[in-house]
Amino acid sequence: MAQVRHDGTGIERPTSLAPLVARLRSLGTGGGRVLVGLAGAPGVGKSTLARALVAAMVPEPAAVIPMDGFHLAAEVIAGTELAGRRGAIDTFDAHGFVHLLTRLRRRDEDVVLAPRYSREIEDPIASAIAVPRGVGHLVVEGNYLLADAPVWRSARAQLDEVWFLDLAPDVRVSRLVDRHVEFGKSPEQARSWTHGSDGANARLVDSGRASADLVVDVGDLVL
Predict the structure, then answer these.
(1) Which own/partner pairs from 69-75 qualify as long-range (CB within 8 Å, at least 24 positions apart)?
(2) 133 phi and psi, to 5 degrees?
């Protein structure tokens, strides 16, 4: 069975992990550190694919860098209108994210520590991911890697490629509702958040699709 299908748009849409891993490896032939971004709407499967890519790179050292580690802390936005739309583009420390990517790109420190987001406590955890100098491939995943705004373009400039993850809207929305319920929202709250704040975020994310280096149809992807 073909591992890549073509839909007439000139964009390859891989149907298995193998061509994605091969593409990731090929970007490192120059000997420098490789940073590849995975962009996509909430619930599309960015974290799942990022982990699968890193696992498939073994024995070569690789790591996942989640943009979600740069969520503004709950105590920072408590009592503001930002709390009611957490996850929107202006509820992230975008400049801090760019600074981290710049340090990772330079690769001149023995270890760089990156934050991650904990869904259990619904807050970021500082210095939770250690990236030693020897890690040559980084998979950076987040909603707004293709956003057309100055600070996000600066983030994009640190990445070798950005892949846009696509998924049928009904499947993605169903997954997202289930995730919100799993982490404490009632079904009604989960549906309201998914179609409200998350829906607006998804539309913004989708506007960057045309500038991606690759579109990955996650619905077709067999991990």
Answers:
(1) 69/114, 69/115, 69/116, 69/117, 69/124, 69/125, 69/128, 69/129, 70/94, 70/96, 70/97, 70/100, 70/115, 70/124, 71/117, 71/123, 71/124, 73/123, 73/124, 74/122, 74/123
(2) -55, -30
What are the beta bridge partners of residue 129? 114
Tell me which amino acid residue 74 is.
A
> Is residue 88 within 8 Å of 203, Cβ to Cβ?
no
Assessment of whether the complete model's pTM goes beyond 0.85: yes
Instruction: Identify the residue whose tokens are 């020897």.
Output: 134
Contact 41, 143 (CB under 8 A): yes
For 6, other C-beta atoms within 10 Å of its C-beta total 10
Measured from the Cβ of residue 102, the count of other Cβ atoms closer than 10 Å reads 13
- From the number of C-beta atoms within 10 Å of its C-beta (0-12, 13-18, 19+), residue 3 rates as middle
Distance between CA 193 and CA 158 in Å, rounded? Answer: 32
Backbone CA torsion sign across 186, 67, 168, 16: negative
Contact 11, 217 (CB under 8 A): no
**How high is the mean pLDDT in each 10-residue block of the chain (223 residues)?**
45 79 88 93 90 96 97 95 90 97 97 95 95 97 95 97 89 77 75 71 88 88 74
**CA-wise closest residue to 208 among 174, 171, 159, 139:** 159
Of 44, 45, 43, 63, the residue nearest 53 (C-alpha):
63
